[in-house]
Amino acid sequence: MQIGIVGLGRMGGxxxxxxxxNGHQTVVYDRDTKAVAALEGAVPAFSLEDMVNKLxxxxxxxxxxxAGKITEETVMHLGELxxxxxxxxxxxxxxxxxxxxxxxxxxxxxxAYLDIGTSGGVWGxxxxxxxxxxxxxxxxxxxxxxxxxxxxxxxxIPATPGRDGRDPRVANGYVHAGPAGAxxxxxxxxxxxxxxxxxxxxxxxxxxxxxxxxKLPEEERxxxxxxxxxxxxxxxxxxxxxxxxxxxxALAKSPQLEKFSGAVDDSGEGRWTIAAAVDEAVPAPVxxxxxxxxxxxxxxxxxxxxxxxxxxxxxxxxxxxxxxxHKAKDDDQ
Length: 333
Hints:
15 helices, elongated, 8-stranded mixed sheet, 8 strands, 12% strand, alpha/beta
């Protein structure tokens, strides 16, 4: 199939590469012309208008930009350029209520709007992307070859007992979660859970590191090898996970995590998850505490917070904000 992709950053570029590797044609646009030129095999576009003109109807354009003003402006501009039967996709981390509004704006023009929660980070080209899709069923089914290519596939994960007769797409790593907004809502909760899981690992490793403290009785001190513990837990432990895999990678590279200040950003989804919990009167103490721990991390840091930052770097290529790094250096002086 043919698809347009706007935004060729850490994930957008890999989405285009994975699609092209598997026989799809991509027409790509980014404000950074070097990013467009670097994407070998793609059809370059030099504006949104140029992209739309180079796509054959019914068109589909995947927007992979940071949530907020730039995505809003891009989606609305595409809505003006595209025609009945076309589809606009937002694959970033947009707030689900914005998706509902955009779908309502585009629907009278006959343009479908899909919101796709996209998980996979910088590893997506190799591993595939887990996709949580919201929006029009007809558009989702038409673009199924795109989603099937991007998704990880069944791989070596055993089939879950009792799923006979259920949607087979789920076992391949993508799901049509519901109407407009549902995809990003599910991804929002996914990221909220991620906050809690990461915080639990960070705290656990911090406690183990602290066991060597000279404030403890000598016979109760253990100088634990954290890289080895992370590695052994990957092998048959009940707390094994991809996040633990990434933790092991980070600790193997740098047992003391010297290059990380421990100042941990949050990109919004944790806040939105907690807001949804408040709207529904659902208690969410773990996710809430994990978000507040990130706030606290920006003024003096623990080893656990360095590990949080290292995990974010491993799965998403998230680099610590310079303002936090500089502040941490100032605090050390």
